[in-house]
Amino acid sequence: MSVNVFVTRRIPDAGLDLLRKHCGTVDVFPEDRVMTHAEIMREVPGRDGLLCLLTDTIDRRIIEAGDRLRIIANYAVGYNNIDVAAATAERIIVTNTPGVLTDATADLTWALILGICRRIVESDRFTRAGDFHGWAPMLLRGGDLAGRTIGIVGAGRIGSAVARRAAGFDMTILYTNRSLNKDLEQSLPARRVPLETLLREADVISLHVPLTDETKHLIGREELAGMKKTAYLINTSRGPVVDEAALVQALKDGDIAGAALDVFEEEPAIHPGLLELDNVVLTPHTGSATWGTRDSMAVMAAENLIAGLSSRRPPNIVNPDVLG
Ligand code: GLV
Ligand code: GLV
User: Which residue of 31, 63, 65, 197 is surrounded by the most CB atoms within 10 Å?
Assistant: First the structure.
């Protein structure tokens, strides 16, 4: 196809090779950093397809600057970085990469659950500092998991995968979701409850909702106050789902036991309060960061883009209205 495609940052070759095989022109932003809004604005005119990242804010201005743009393929499952309504109004297809990152993200969620409950990062620092003078009955005690309750906020693909893993840890599973998740409840003893109940009863609370107007600050001062003092909060979804200032205060005041976060409200900036606390584990938005998953995401984003530009229905379209 003699189509012209722009990629906002280098992604694994598995995806770039596919694009190069099918598209006439494939330009990749040459620097290994996030493009500025102005830089994307300059690149978009004349392009038929755009492959972008969750770190790119694709707003109405960029979408309207895309005089030939037919598809925006996001290299992520979340697509809160794209003004989908504006794209739909311009009849531009938007796609994402669901499914392929479910297990990797659920695994990182569990790494964080175990990391915060069993104080892995703190223990590593302690051991390296030469503070280990022998086994001790009270040394670095952490939270129990077996027999305790996990609360999954948002039981979509990733939340369900986290729940399946929780069954292996012999935990009671509560979840919130817009609708009953029949598949989940058929395979696991999982119970859908109101958020308030989940917050009150869970020992580990893990967030798996997309970021929307309704989920921004879903977990704020009041919700944190409704949790057990021994509870741990895990977030591998999107930073703004949690009111970070309220979380810092709750951790300082001992309202909850700890938090493990892969995402941040003002990413990549991190609330300075979080950096000072020992009862916090922080990772740099690496939920999907495995070799295999990042390759699969690259192939999926490329396949979506190629399909859209070949006038075939892309497998992972998020605004199917544009085709109607
Ligand atoms: C990662 O955060 C993603 O949405 O893919
Ligand atoms: C995302 O893939 C989700 O449904 O959790």
Answer: 63
